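--- STAGE predict ---
source: upstream dedup step, 1 unique chain passed
mode: sequence only
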Amino acid sequence: MDNISALKTQQRLTAVRNAMDKLGMQDKLDVLQTAKTKLPEDERAFIDYLADDLIEAHRDLPQLMPYLHLPVQSGSDRILAAMNRKHTADEYRAVIETRHGNPAQLTAFVRPATAPTFIAFADTCEEAYPIPLQGGLFQGNTSNATAQYAAGCDQAGGAAAGASDQMLRLDLPGPRRVVFDMRGSSYRTLLNIRKGPACPGTEVLHGCSVGFYQQRSYLDLRLEKGTYYVQVDGFFGESGAWFLDVFIVE
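--- STAGE serialize ---
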């Protein structure tokens, strides 16, 4: 990370902290949501300059996710070397601390590296592609799909059924923590998680995410036993090529 990027990141977070000092708890939420989306993608900058104010807000505000996602890039030694990373795929080291010495927790999601599974068709719940219990990496393209289902986090004023979408299905035998990550998709994605068993089911609380920036849609949910439909959609009519990485842990 160059010094200019570091300075800009620090300036953004300083501005957030200053604004938070002047605002009440309800207004803090709006400031934090804006700040999160404007952080640079470089995870080193994210780690180095993530303020305790933001961490504590994720802990205390029910409207924010209680987890933060820090990708470690690749499971390939060749790719890691090309990216000038100093670790290998076999060994990672993480040091977690906060300015105030608050408790912190790290969860590592480990899965064998595999090529993404291409999702063809899957235009309705009846055609929904099954996600295995170990999760997986999936890709598809909604450009040739049709608009079947609306979403609660889409922008008002668009088509009744929103953008064209594709569906995946997840059957959980018990409570699980499930992470959905659409990083790498080519458009402003919309990801909507619905609880069955009826098709298309009802939207899960806090289970709709719009990916305005390059981070794309991201959800970290605690889901109970049951059938879920994963709606891969687009924000305000957008469509295109998408990726979806799914991690599942007990």
